[in-house]
Every structure is written in structure tokens, then in C-alpha cells.
């Protein structure tokens, strides 16, 4: 039963103001993404963004082709045995 009495103390320590302060990175990101350098916004984040974009587009195109293939197969009449 003692461990239940310690929960409020532990919770208040977890959310206290003496915890380490995190640096706000938003202004730096805003400068990066608002910069007029001719790049589209989906690749301004660097190499990781480019790889994620290309992987997403590859999966999308492959899925579309796969769906169209099976629509074509389903639309063909079956041979009667």
C-alpha cells in the first residue's frame, strides 16, 4: 500500500519546473523551410526527406500498377473448361 502513496510525489517530480529545459528548434526550422532557394518544400529537409519522398512515390506507383494489373485480369473473360 505504501507504493500507492508515493505515486503523487513521483508524478509531481516528473512534471516539475526543475526538469531540464529543452531548446526551441522551431525558429531554425522556419528559417530553413521559408528560405527561397528554389527547392520544393518536401525536399528542403535534406537527404532524409528526399529518400522518404522517393520511397513514398515508388510505393504509390507500384501499388497503382498492381491495382491496374488485377483490374485488367478481373475484366478478362474466363475460359470455360
From TrEMBL:
Gene3D superfamilies: Cytochrome c oxidase, subunit VIIa
The protein's annotated pathway: Energy metabolism; oxidative phosphorylation
Pfam families tied to this protein: COX7a
Chain coiled-coil ranges: none
GO biological process: mitochondrial electron transport, cytochrome c to oxygen; mitochondrial respirasome assembly; regulation of oxidative phosphorylation
GO molecular function annotations of the record: oxidoreductase activity
Record keyword Magnesium present: no
Domain of life: Eukaryota
Compartmental location: Mitochondrion inner membrane
Membrane topology: Single-pass membrane protein
Keywords carried by this UniProt record: Membrane, Mitochondrion, Mitochondrion inner membrane, Oxidoreductase, Transit peptide, Transmembrane, Transmembrane helix
Membrane-traversing stretches: 51-72
Listed PANTHER family: CYTOCHROME C OXIDASE POLYPEPTIDE 7A, CYTOCHROME C OXIDASE SUBUNIT 7A1, MITOCHONDRIAL
Family note: Belongs to the cytochrome c oxidase VIIa family.
Protein's recorded name: Cytochrome c oxidase subunit 7A1, mitochondrial
Species annotation: Parambassis ranga (Indian glassy fish)
Gene encoding the protein: cox7a1
Amino acid at each position: 500500500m505504501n507504493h500507492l502513496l508515493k505515486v503523487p510525489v513521483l508524478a509531481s517530480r516528473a512534471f516539475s519546473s526543475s526538469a531540464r529545459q529543452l531548446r526551441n528548434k522551431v525558429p531554425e526550422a522556419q528559417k530553413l523551410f521559408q528560405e527561397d532557394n528554389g527547392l520544393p518544400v518536401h525536399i528542403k529537409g535534406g537527404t532524409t526527406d528526399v529518400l522518404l519522398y522517393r520511397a513514398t512515390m515508388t510505393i504509390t506507383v507500384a501499388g497503382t500498377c498492381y491495382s491496374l494489373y488485377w483490374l485488367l485480369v478481373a475484366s478478362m473473360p474466363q475460359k470455360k473448361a
